[in-house]
Amino acid sequence: MFYQKDKETMTRKETEELQLMRLQWTVNRCYDRVPYYRKIMDKAGVKPSHIKNLGDVAKLPLTSKTDLRENYPYGLFASAIEDIVEVHASSGTTGKPIVGAYTHNDLEVWSDCMARIITASGVTKEDIAQISFGYGLFTGAFGLHYGLQKVGCMVVPISSGNSEKQLMIMEDFETSVLIATPSYGVYLSEMAKDKGVSDHLKLRVGLFGSEVCTPEMRTQIEKNIGITVTDNYGLTELGGPGVSGECLERDGLHINEDYYLCEVIDPDSGEVLPEGETGELVITPLAKEAFPIFRYRTKDLARLTYEPCKCGRTQARMTKVLGRTDDMMIIKGVNVFPSQIESVLFTMDHIGPHYQLILRKKNFMDTLEVQVELIDANLLERYGELEALQNKIHSDLKSVLGLECKVSLVPPRTITRFEGKAKRIIDLRNENRQ
Ligand SMILES: [Zn+2]
Question: From the CA of 211, how far away is ligand 1's center (Å)?
């Protein structure tokens, strides 16, 4: 197929040969065209000629968001402005955003990567796809837009917000594919169910991205509107969505390895970890003209596997993001990730996908309150059941996290909903010292 289906089934050797060739091209491009990269490579004592095999990637220095911020807005571009046809920027609310640039070729590669992921999730040219991501500088909407069009779908670029209208369009236009953040997906699916329109919808597939879609959010959406949900992954810094995505086996996200080289490192030491170990994902895009970068620290924790998948694709797979090195909370000296808390919460009956973690200091000690939203307000009156549920959550969290926390069950619809990424952690430890 025109979007290089063959690249999805290459042998490991073929993949690695292509990756090495493209890695060398990328490193040369960075060194020759971007003074900042030349400077940090010289400082680390690495020349492009030192990259003789794939493992040599570890000789290159790691890069991070700080490098991108320091060179805002155009400092890391490797193409002349006249060759750049599009820019995007991160949605971060603090400081200067991260800017990414695309040449015509970069857009082609982006559409290719997305078309593969979209196809792997079972979408075909017969589908009608509603993009409920916010259009704008954010990469998500455009990436999916280009990829869906490449597959041949009819795209409905509704953008985010105005949920009533989203449902009306979904019903009237007979939308079959929904593109959204998982939290917005949960919200829309709840609304569709409450309004009784879920049975009239033609939705069959959802591609969710931009934040982690937990198995529990997936179950919730599938239960509310009866669709197959797949997850995909990418970052503005690396060109947006398109790094990896799930096939219908949904047993890890297939990495577009001909365009991205992934490593997993120990976030503290920077050491590269062997296959199967959990660590920070470090990614080198292999074909970017306008905005090349090497060894970018994603701050996302994941594992890699090179085992072939049941679907027949031979591309390596990454797990869903298991947590953020940023989100790691240190509570009483213990490392805690929101994903650990989710794994407990979503096995319980009577509670929905919405929760909040509140950190405080009391008598100079950290405390963690886990607020969880009930599905059924009536449970609040049934004290025996309510207490039993609270105790069960409390003891399960204690055994998973290895620390005490306070569990509060709150009425339905009391925890703030987000149309973009959900904000789960409220850290008040520096505000209410006692
Ligand atoms: Zn697969």
Answer: 21
Cα–Cα dist 316/250, whole Å: 13
Structure tokens at 408: 């509060």
Q: What is the model's pTM?
A: 0.81
Give the domain ranges of the chain: 5-108+233-315, 329-427
Residue 250 Cα to ligand 1 midpoint, Å, equals 7
pLDDT in tens, 336-369: 888 788 878 878 888 888 899 999 998 888 999 9
**The Cα angle at residue 247 between residues 245 and 249, in degrees rounded to 5:** 135
Mean per-residue pLDDT of the chain:
92
Least Cα distance to 322 among 336, 306, 332, 307 occurs for 336
Contact 76, 63 (CB under 8 A): no
How many Å lie between the centroid of ligand 1 and the Cα of residue 314? 8
Per-residue pLDDT at 421 exceeds 80 = no
How many residues appear in the chain?
Answer: 434
Distance 258 CA to ligand 1 centre (A): 16
Q: What is the CATH number of domain 5-108+233-315?
A: 3.40.50.12780
**C-alpha 3 to ligand 1 mean position (Å):** 17
State which CATH number among 3.30.559.30, 3.30.300.30, 3.30.200.20, 3.20.20.80 fits the domain covering 329-427: 3.30.300.30
Q: For residue 46, how far is its CA from the centre of ligand 1 (angstroms)?
A: 37
State the average pLDDT over residues 421-428: 82
Work out the widest C-alpha separation in the chain, in whole angstroms: 71
Per-residue CA distances from 159 to 138, 166, 224 (Å): 11, 9, 22
Task: Quote the Cα angle for 315-213-267, to 5°.
Answer: 70
Which amino acid belongs to residue 106?
D
Q: How many CA atoms lie within 13 A of 241 on its CB side?
A: 33
Cα 83 to ligand 1 centre (Å): 36
The residue with tokens 């490797």 is 78
